[in-house]
Design a protein that fits this description.
- There is one protein chain.
- This protein is mainly α and 263 residues long.
- The chain is 63% helix and 0% strand.
- It contains 13 helices and no strands.
């Protein structure tokens, strides 16, 4: 399967708006081999001649239309774009983070699809991306459970080199806000990647002062929010990834149970 055919088959709503422009440039650079031979992507600056312009005739995405179900290819492309932003947050691309992205895609999609995805990722990483515009398009077009899964993956990338830098935290926090994810949801997912005394409570989105009944209610709520079936429409590969969030909610609850001595 060729790179271009794979992209065409994988992506649904992303061929429009800022994401469509980003993918258009990535595909154009691959098909025409422009990035390797130094030819400008958007024409010759001296002559003004349009050699290849993926922005032309790009369909506009309608922010008023009904939000469709997110498909695996849409999630995949959104993930690659946001991952490229996070990896560059501290001013460099750490090889361990790049290896984490590649390995996660191998685990989810298999070797061939992962290789195509990583080729796209490398080309996306060379672009200057408007984080706000991309995130607002994702927010408009992607369901909440899928956006939470995106955020979890981004923290996993940032932690791949052993620790999350302040630059990475700030970048992910900003992305989270643009994606329409609440501070409580952000803190819950962030707590899954840190070891501290009150992390179990943060994961369940509660304060340590709450009653045992409130702890139980919070657990039921979070177990429902993070249940892998919530992203079943993304395909089995992403359901398996969502199981990690679900498992950490269970472990947080068990930790509090043991700490407080209730069943």
């Amino acid at each position: 399967m060729s790179f271009a055919k794979w992209i065409g088959g994988a992506i649904g709503w992303s061929f429009g708006g800022p994401i469509g422009a980003i993918i258009g440039l990535a595909i154009g650079s691959f098909v025409d081999n422009l990035s390797e031979n130094g030819t400008p992507l958007i024409g010759d600056r001296q002559t003004g001649k349009k050699e290849h312009d993926p922005y032309r005739k790009m369909p506009k995405y309608d922010t008023q239309k009904e939000k469709p179900k997110t498909k695996s290819g849409d999630f995949e492309v959104s993930l690659l774009i946001l991952a490229s932003i996070v990896i560059k947050a501290d001013g460099k691309q750490d090889q361990r983070e790049l290896d984490f992205v590649r390995q996660q895609f191998r685990n989810m999609y298999g070797a061939e699809r992962a290789n195509h995805a990583f080729e796209l990722f490398k080309r996306i990483s060379k672009q200057n991306i408007s984080m706000r515009q991309v995130c607002l398009q994702i927010k408009q077009m992607m369901d909440h459970a899928s956006r939470l899964q995106l955020l979890h993956f981004l923290f996993g990338i940032a932690k791949a080199d052993g620790f999350v830098t302040e630059d990475e935290v700030r970048k992910i926090y900003t992305i989270s806000g643009y994606l329409g994810i609440s501070n409580r949801d952000y803190d819950s997912i962030k707590a899954m990647f840190y070891n501290s005394t009150n992390n179990a409570y943060k994961i369940l989105e509660i304060d340590k002062s709450v009653s045992d009944d409130e702890v139980k209610a919070a657990y039921r709520k979070m177990a429902k929010k993070y249940h892998p079936d919530r992203v079943g429409h993304l395909g089995k590969e992403h359901q398996e990834g969502a199981e990690e969030k679900f498992r950490q909610v269970q472990e947080a609850y068990e930790h509090i149970q043991k700490e407080r001595g209730f069943k």
